[in-house]
Amino acid sequence: MKVAEPTIERLIQYYRLLTQMKEEGRKVVSSLQIGEMLGIKASQVRKDLSYFGEIGKRGVGYHVNRLCAHIENILASPKVWRVALAGVGNLGMALMAHAAFQSYKFEADALFDVDPEKVGHEIMGVHCWHIDDIAKVIDERNIEVLILAVPAEAGQSCVDKAAQSKSLKGILSFTPATVVVPERILFFRVDIFVELEKLLFFLKEQEKIR
Amino acid sequence: MKVAEPTIERLIQYYRLLTQMKEEGRKVVSSLQIGEMLGIKASQVRKDLSYFGEIGKRGVGYHVNRLCAHIENILASPKVWRVALAGVGNLGMALMAHAAFQSYKFEADALFDVDPEKVGHEIMGVHCWHIDDIAKVIDERNIEVLILAVPAEAGQSCVDKAAQSKSLKGILSFTPATVVVPERILFFRVDIFVELEKLLFFLKEQEKIR
């Protein structure tokens, strides 16, 4: 089963919403309600969920607990991924502390930076190496995922160095620069700059209309 | 001219890439090259740019400087937006220091938190108020944009409080929770959780194939 990226994005959103509802003690939810909470059409919600084998009851909807467990299973990790973080500045530190990174699905195993005050030390319990050693350390420790939080101007050279390792399989970038990544490595980015500029653009458009 | 969100997303990506190229002293670029750097089809690049009135020369491409200036003009801000940040934890601090936020397009004018060690103090040169005063302070200071970096469980209540203000026009959320926002307020989110889960899902799929 080859799943499209937007489908998985929506599935992750459903999962998070259902987790919230479960915590609030809610029992059932309709596709219309899910759609309204997430800004997705109810027909799209039904289509997505039936694609993954869940069909709601007409007039009742979906059982929150069951649907939540079902999606959790789809998103479940077959193992704990070993993860490295490159760039232990403000953003890197914030990421390490961020709720999204407190997941049982992976383990922060190595840090990389160029700052002599950080290299050779433990930060939040994880050892920090020099960026120049990134490929060697990644291979030695069998790390498969790299979180990139280096400054824009260091993005490409950091990716080039890391891509020399054999064990690296995926990169999640928070670096505000366009980088070229070898095709064998999965690459996703969280683009703060794009979202911010987008908001400002549509604010401007809205002012024009008023 | 009503522009679709994905079009603006691509335009911002072109702009950033062209800025990088300009800094590197590059003079011309083809739609194929832009497309390859960004993972977008060359035909889409040409369509987007011609939509905004730029047509490349066959066999030559686009002039980097001219195209860059043209897009800059489209994305230009009519004013400096007054911005507030709610949640001055690790993530909020990282955002304030992040390159994307060092923009001449807006000015950080107020901080909000619940931590008694922060409320009433200046942090990085900006005063911090209690979250409970958010609507009042936003209106008094004519703030139009809110950056949301509070913990997931505080997301909705913070949005509800801020939405009581009259001057607020847009929210950019970094909070890993689904929140409901009144329609008159523009809402975008940078979703670290979704991107991370997406990466892990596709890593898993890739392992299955191998």
Description:
The structure is a homodimer of 210-residue chains. The termini of chain A are far apart. Chain A is 43% helix and 18% strand. In chain A, helix 7 links the parallel strand 7 and strand 8 (170-173). The first copy, chain A, has a seven-stranded mixed beta sheet with strand order 5-6-4-3-7-8-9, covered by helices on one side. A two-stranded antiparallel ribbon of chain A has the order 1-2. Chain A is an alpha/beta fold. The interface between A and B is large, with 63 and 63 residues.
Brief characterization of the structure:
2 copies of one chain form a homodimer. Chain A is an alpha/beta fold.
From the structure above, extract its key features.
43% helix; Arc Repressor Mutant, subunit A; alpha/beta; globular; 9 strands; 210 residues; two-stranded antiparallel sheet; 7-stranded mixed beta sheet; homodimer; 2 domains; Rossmann fold
Helices and strands in order:
The structure is a homodimer of 210-residue chains.
Chain A: H1 5-23, E1 28-29, H2 31-38, H3 42-51, E2 62-63, H4 64-75, E3 81-86, H5 90-97, E4 106-113, E5 122-123, E6 126-130, H6 134-140, E7 145-148, H7 155-162, E8 170-173, E9 186-189, H8 192-209
Parallel strand pairs in A: 3-4, 3-7, 4-6, 7-8, 8-9
Antiparallel strand pairs in A: 1-2, 5-6
